[in-house]
Amino acid sequence: MLRSWDNGVEEALQKLEHLQLLRSLRPIYLQNGPTQEAQNPVDDEFHVFDEMQPWDRSSVEVHIPEPTFQKWLHDIPSSGDEEGTHKFRKLLLFSGNDYLGLSSHPTIGKAASKAALEHGMGPRGSALICGYTDYHRRLESCIAELKKKEDCLLCPTGFAANMALMVALGNVGSLLAAGKTPLTNEKIAIFSDALNHASIIDGIRLAERQKSVEIFIYRHCDMTHLNALLSSCTMRKKVVVTDSLFSMDGDFAPMIELVKLRKEHGFLLVIDDAHGTFVCGKNGGGVAEQYNCERDVDICVGTLSKAAGCHGGFIACSKRWKQLIQSRGRSFIFSTATPIPIVAAARASLIVARKETWRRREIWNRVHDFRVLTGIPINSPIISLIVGSEEKALQASQSLLKSGFHVTAIRPPTVPPNSCRLRVTLSATHTRDDIERFTAALSLCVNFQEIGIHGSNGGYARL
Q: Coiled coil where (predicted)?
């Protein structure tokens, strides 16, 4: 069954070549770029550390002007441009996605500044015109190696990566139909988890407009429902797409069950590993590495704006799929390529994340600390505490704010009515003492025995 996907993509690529629509990436090697030694840097170019350093704390410690603090405290809209104030409130951040605290790492900052001094922002243009350089290519190679994939396509954002992939999937059906409307059994069936990220949802909707795909939504992590939908589907080409670690609920996709279904039904398995990359797995390879099923995941989408502490998105896949996506993925084709300093920083981040293994150890220690101190059975650094009404969520957020903790109340339309929540995230640069103080403050505004976690079967787009 999976071989038919390879044949289908190959046939689609041949049609694109015949139509002269096949696009290639040609990296520009910058004139003042790194020497051969710098392209293959010695270890000491990337300084790493065996434990937390003082600068790491800036990834979880923030300051906001006192007027802004007061407006937030009373839920008064604020533009955030209050000038002339010299008084600030220090808050401890429990709401960001910088899971490893890499955004403040000096080695990553130096990589960005070195590239900026040598090349400025680099050539400005889309990747297919002049924006793709040797810096981009080396970063793609690093990500492909991390994800155990043949190749990788760098995108401006994780959102753009999902959009490009979904649209490219729809193009396969259109290309194989040779300009005609595909018959029902010739269409591509896309099976999507009900709580998938907004970028997947929007990408699927755009693909659907090509009239070459059929969309099936299965109940959140419900493998019985997914199996029933797959069994009743007569289409030959099937795709299952899911978040690996769900960003608003903090639960993992049932990877082992998905792999079993993949072997039974022969579908293409696509995961969005935005919140698992660098955090999960011995080497930071993500959720697939953690569940020892990297070879069973056909395409892995991810981001460099969370645990990598930088910016950008990627699609780790085969060379064949990369060629298709870069030729038909509109959000990739029509976006300006990522600036050189950001690419250099992201590559440094990959190297630091791989070597500073203490960061992964510490974030999972903080997950353990929170679980022990609260009794709430969490299993990831994303903690979704459902409190119910908007009023309750705001009161809890404001109570934590008074205690010096930055936690935002998540309200409709991000989540359904009466499922408002506090979305708490843990970081490797939080300490045991931070968790103790935070959970003590949290216990004053929520009841740990009554709190709901994960919760919601609604198909809503999340942060």
A: none
Q: How many CB atoms lie within 10 A of CB 190?
A: 27
| Cα dihedral: 418, 202, 240, 144 (round 10) | -110
Task: List 218's β-bridge partners, or say none.
Answer: 193
Amino acid at 357: T
Contact at 8 Å (CB) between 272 and 162? Answer: yes
β partners of residue 302: 314
pLDDT mean over 83-99: 86
Predicted local confidence at residue 457, as pLDDT: 35
Determine the Cα–Cα distance for residues 258 and 252; give it in Å rounded to an integer. Answer: 12
DSSP string, 311-372: --EEEEE-HHHHHHHHHH-HHHHTSBPPPHHHHHHHHHHHHHHHH-THHHHHHHHHHHHHHH
In the sheet where 313-317 sits, what is the strand order? 151-155, 313-317, 299-303, 268-272, 237-243, 188-193, 213-218
pLDDT tens string 301-322: 999 999 999 999 999 999 999 9
Residue pointed to by tokens 């934590």: 400
Tokens standing for residue 246: 């769900």
* Spatial contact of 72 and 78, defined as CB atoms under 8 Å apart: yes
- pLDDT tens string 395-416: 999 999 999 999 988 888 878 8
User: Is residue 59 a contact partner of residue 369, using CB atoms and an 8 Å limit?
Assistant: no
Which one-letter amino acid corresponds to residue 212?
S
